[in-house]
Amino acid sequence: MPSSAEALAGKLRIDDLEPQGRRVLLRADLNLPVQDGVVTDMTRVTAMLPTLRTLLAAGAAVVVMSHRGRPNGETPEEFSMAPVAEAMRLVLGHEVILLEDCIGDKVETAVQALVPGDVALLENLRCHPGETANDAEFACRLASLADLYVDDAFGAVHRAHASIIGVPPLVEVAAVGHLLELEVQMLSRCLDEPAKPFVLVAGGAKVSDKLDALANLMPLVDRLIIGGAMANTVLTYQGIDMGNSRIEEDAIELAAVLLECAELNGVEILLPYDFVVAADLGDAASARVVRQVPATTMVFDIGPESIERFASAIADAQTVLWNGPMGVFEIDELAGGTQGIGSAIADVAGRGGISIVGGGDTAAAVSAAGLSSSMTHVSTGGGATLDLLSGSVLPGIVALTDRCA
Length: 405
Fold this sequence. Notes:
single chain, alpha/beta, six-stranded parallel β-sheet, about 15% strand, globular
């Protein structure tokens, strides 16, 4: 089975299109965090700008579509794309027309009135159950809005949804956007003879979510660093009492699989051996460092000795891949581990190595620490990143138009 990078190589790209005077349906990933009606992280808006600007410069009218949140086929105001439209206006410096829905007669009339240089944003795709169900009629209504299609939604390209796999066969040409191409190329550097030593840093909550990706990477990795709640589960398997800490009970045996896989491939494993604990998140101000976790406390971060040991293991790396924070980075008292490891990984890029950050919470943590620009690449994907690293061919790539032989 080909890799995602190999599959991508056989697809048409945005630069192959001739979009002048035509309408282009652009699938972006604008699933953005919003607080009090304002987008709080512009990363994904900024990331899709090269594709959007390429289309506008070529004389296209662009119809952007995305999901936001999980409205489950309903239309609650909290999932509206209105804050996203305003964020796009600010970053793009260009008027963005927010349409009242993503399909329907009024939407079709508004789209037909667009002229080259116009940008319209459809309302939330997931407000229609046909999106997640990959409903043929829903896909057909979306496809009717444009002549050409560009997929730049790396964060959603692993989903078999209507806007990802249903629309491409129904338009004249479906091509790869700049961001999607960049994401696949950069993440594939971890799969295609990565420079050694290669250090894999895994954190976050669940062993089960990352096991396939970690197992696929293990033959390439020299050292595996495990932190976050993942470490709680692994340490529990090893017989260490983690108090009231978050444990993925159903994945304790998966921890055994992970450790065995690492051993079979000669991978050095590093686990934390001091911890920042508190009775609960509400008690973060009184958090303290311990070696043994008291029965009445929970682990919320790795301790300073673990930070130092992990940073030392990263120091000589030529390639580092990081997916999953070391602790509850959103709270200052519990962010030391994530910030410390982030700084060590940024140093790798600073001396000419490759530092790649998996998306989701890890990207948010890097942004919060002010380290995004110091990394080689920060992915905009979450599940898509893990699927690609597991060796899966992403369905959204398969659906795009093949290059002629």
